[in-house]
Amino acid sequence: MRFTTLAPILALLALAPTIASAVDGQPVATDGDCTIDVRMQTEGEVVEGVPSWHPDGNIMVKLAGSDCNVGVSPTWTITGWDYTVVQIAPNAVFKPPALGDNERQLVKILRGTLLDVNVNGIFTDGHWETHAVTAPNRALSMYLDSNVDEITAGNDGAVMYYMKVTEEILSTHITDMTSFPITDKAGPFSENIKWEPYVDVCPEPVFIGVEFYNMAGIFLQDNDGSRLANMQFWTIREDMLIDGGYHQYHDFGEIHMTNYAANGVSGMQTTLKGTENKNFTPNPPDAMDAGKWHQYKQNDQPEVQIAIPMPPGYAHGPLWSVDPATGEPTYRCDGTIQYPKHRMLLATNGKLNDPLRFTSWTAFETVAKDVKVPLKMMTEWPNANLQQTMTPEECAAADDSGSAAAADDSGSAAAADDSGSAATPESPPVVDAVDESGSAYHSDPATLVMVALSSIFVAIA
């Protein structure tokens, strides 16, 4: 044997600490302690941050240690989409697997930044830097160009979901919950998670007979076991009156990405705090009976409401309140983030599809410290709900004890009552404006609103 022939191979192995590459179609970690632990949450195991309606039965994923250069989890296929957790050290490079015919690649950053993968972020020091959040209150694509074959982390590293989907899946419409691709699942412990009618896990009258489904997903932890992010899945049929659950209480930054869209307006609906909708129509007197409030488009919301359509592979930016001085989320007295009421939007003014279609989406729920909005994403015409964290004096005045809707951070529509919201006391309106459609609204200096998007200000739910 001639061992001298190994020299070129050894030279290549010396490069391993800087790059993780693909083997047999799947990415592989190549440096340090890059074991990303995957296990099933045990029955009765208490884990901070898991959804209240799925206290156990979640797939648990724990990041590798800080000496890991690039760590890659196994891949899960959920409803035809592939999801892989990727952990990248500062300025390290991840080489994703080669794309197959008609495959598209996407990323959802959970922490840190990526360099030069798209232009969703901000231009800094000669690089486009993509962050864990995109611009607030608008939909942007999560796709990467097919030519992107290296993904470099910024100075703080990155944790992300690397996703793949085929053109065939993207062109598929979901018309029932028992057929491919909505039933397509693979990966470690995937046999233990399933679509469940939401009424089975949240037995409220409003959900009886409603085609509204949830699937427990993947709970991601730091190497020390602390909470980093949760990912779960939702599906609802386009004719359901509750849409996708009207709610506003979270202790995390919630971003939704559409997997399957029932129609052209499927996406998010949110409320612009500090505005007044001049076309507001109060709900009828019996609207609160047996959960009927979900059946009315206005939901007794006097503020301006907007729709944010999201095609498959698109996600919205922050809907929560942002501190204009820091870009960080702002908080109520009970520790929840100040959110306007929001939900997944299904309603369309057009004819329903025949057969009826389902909208299906992924919810990414990231700890608040990782969803800071870079100030360069804040436009001259404010594009976010801007507020300050409530002061002790404001808390006392509002008597915010945290009982509002049980401080619901579940995303459930069952506890969407706004009666206890501790929003900053509103100042008298100081500006009247009329958008291009003729709808008038007030602007409040305490919570600046998206004048730049006035052409799409509509009062729909």
Textual characterization of the structure:
With 461 residues, the protein is mostly beta strands. It has one domain (29-456): Jelly Rolls (Sandwich), CATH 2.60.120. It contains four helices and 27 strands. The protein is globular and about 60 Å long. The N and C termini lie far apart (74 Å). Residues 1-18 and 400-461 have low confidence and may be disordered.
CATH architecture: Sandwich
Radius of gyration: 23 Å
Overall pLDDT confidence: 79
The helix content is under 10%
Number of helices: 4
**Highest-level CATH class:** Mainly Beta
Low-pLDDT sequence parts: 1-18, 400-461
Task: Provide the domain count.
Answer: 1
Main sheet: strands, sense, barrel: 10 strands, mixed
Give the structural class.
mainly beta
Strand content: 25-35%
Shape: globular
Q: Kindly identify the CATH topology.
A: Jelly Rolls
Fill in the keyword field for this structure.
461 residues, Jelly Rolls, 4 helices, 27 strands, disordered C terminus
Brief write-up:
By secondary structure, this protein is mostly beta strands. It has one domain: Jelly Rolls. The chain contains four helices and 27 strands.
SSE topology sketch:
Elements: H1 7-13, E1 19-20, E2 22-23, E3 26-27, E4 37-40, E5 59-62, E6 70-78, E7 81-88, E8 93-94, E9 103-115, E10 122-124, E11 127-130, E12 139-141, E13 143-144, E14 151-166, H2 167-170, E15 185-186, E16 196-197, H3 198-201, E17 212-221, E18 227-237, E19 247-250, E20 252-260, E21 267-272, E22 304-309, E23 314-316, E24 337-345, E25 358-367, H4 392-398, E26 431-434, E27 440-443
Parallel strand pairs: 1-8, 5-17
Antiparallel strand pairs: 2-3, 4-5, 6-7, 6-15, 7-14, 8-14, 9-11, 9-13, 9-14, 10-11, 12-23, 16-17, 17-18, 18-25, 19-24, 20-25, 21-22, 21-24, 26-27
